[in-house]
């Protein structure tokens, strides 16, 4: 995809990183790894779980995913506070998959204020099969189905298109040997644009084929899966047995990692959905030095991005 850019339009896209962490957050309740310990002692900032807020007018906001920490995240973000007795600037929620860290926060949004919930048919099915989500009263919460590669407008002035990225079904639906690089509705990336500003949000991605690199290249900003630094960091650190590949997350480092694969990006490049095991969280690590040298930022809770 190529774009000819002449003069920049006035339109802006505003993003607030409500939660930069992956599932479990930082520190994770049961984890004593280097990064979790550093977060407990104030050496590095804690992170809540994976959610962004996006707006074009500063008044109406869409949430991209809804983390289990959403109640706290909304309270911590003045732009998302109610402006009247019972209302909310949150007008829409867009889900990129059915993982716990992306859907559990929907339960926080159950108190009879209207919004539209956008998800693929596959993700909507997961929600309808879990009857606890029927607390989202359909009188107030409209469920809209996202068709892949088809534009939709979660907010006036903001257009979004979802595309399949390599990934897997949620952990709690896995069988014996799940396909971890499946292409379909279960894991999507989002292209968001307003006027000539374009941003991509891809919090979970198992591989970076050439077509995806080309799609991301011209964007003003890319917020990409920063779960892990090394594919084997969980087994190596003793925090778990799974590799990144097994979890459906491409590592940042290594010859085929996202740092190497995405070196041709033109706009801001920001890692988000960062797992607590990721050594790039430590300011003095070799991983952080490599990330910074390649022009990447690591998202943090409360970070604001204006394009
Ligand atoms: C993931 O991103 O791999 C999942 O959120 C893991 C999980 O469900 O805990
Ligand atoms: Mn996750
Ligand atoms: Zn940890």
TrEMBL record:
<comment type="function">
    <text>May be involved in the transport of PQQ or its precursor to the periplasm.</text>
</comment>
<dbReference type="GO" id="GO:0018189">
    <property type="term" value="P:pyrroloquinoline quinone biosynthetic process"/>
</dbReference>
<dbReference type="InterPro" id="IPR036866">
    <property type="entry name" value="RibonucZ/Hydroxyglut_hydro"/>
</dbReference>
<keyword id="KW-0884">PQQ biosynthesis</keyword>
<dbReference type="InterPro" id="IPR011842">
    <property type="entry name" value="PQQ_synth_PqqB"/>
</dbReference>
<comment type="similarity">
    <text>Belongs to the PqqB family.</text>
</comment>
<feature type="domain" description="Metallo-beta-lactamase">
    <location>
        <begin position="60"/>
        <end position="271"/>
    </location>
</feature>
<comment type="pathway">
    <text>Cofactor biosynthesis; pyrroloquinoline quinone biosynthesis.</text>
</comment>
<keyword id="KW-0813">Transport</keyword>
<protein>
    <recommendedName>
        <fullName>Coenzyme PQQ synthesis protein B</fullName>
    </recommendedName>
</protein>
<dbReference type="InterPro" id="IPR001279">
    <property type="entry name" value="Metallo-B-lactamas"/>
</dbReference>
<dbReference type="Pfam" id="PF12706">
    <property type="entry name" value="Lactamase_B_2"/>
</dbReference>
């Amino acid at each position: 995809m190529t774009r000819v850019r002449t003069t920049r339009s006035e339109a802006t896209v505003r993003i607030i990183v409500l939660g930069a962490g992956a599932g479990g957050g930082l520190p994770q309740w049961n984890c004593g790894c280097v990064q979790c310990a550093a977060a407990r002692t104030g050496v590095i900032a804690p992170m809540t779980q994976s959610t962004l807020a996006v707006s074009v007018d500063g008044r109406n906001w869409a949430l991209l995913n809804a983390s289990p920490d959403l109640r706290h995240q909304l309270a911590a973000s003045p732009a998302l506070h109610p402006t009247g007795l019972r209302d909310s600037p949150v007008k829409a929620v867009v889900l990129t998959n059915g993982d716990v860290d992306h859907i559990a926060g929907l339960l926080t949004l159950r108190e009879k204020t209207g919004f539209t919930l956008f998800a693929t048919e596959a993700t909507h099915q997961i929600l309808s099969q879990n009857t606890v989500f029927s607390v989202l009263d359909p009188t107030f919460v409209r469920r809209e189905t996202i068709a892949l590669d088809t534009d939709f407008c979660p907010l006036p002035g903001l257009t979004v298109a979802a595309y399949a990225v390599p990934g897997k079904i949620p952990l709690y639906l896995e069988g014996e040997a799940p396909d971890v690089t499946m292409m379909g509705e279960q894991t999507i990336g989002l292209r968001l644009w307003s006027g000539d500003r374009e941003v991509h949000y891809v919090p979970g991605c198992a591989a970076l084929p050439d077509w995806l690199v080309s799609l991301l290249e011209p964007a003003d900003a890319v917020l990409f899966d920063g779960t892990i630094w090394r594919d084997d960091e969980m087994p190596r650190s003793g925090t778990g047995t799974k590799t990144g590949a097994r979890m459906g997350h491409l590592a940042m480092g290594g010859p085929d990692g996202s740092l190497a694969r995405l070196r041709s990006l033109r706009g801001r490049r920001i890692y988000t959905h960062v797992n607590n095991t990721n050594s790039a969280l430590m300011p003095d690590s070799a991983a952080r030095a490599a990330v910074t040298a390649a022009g990447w930022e690591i998202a943090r809770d409360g970070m604001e991005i204006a394009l």
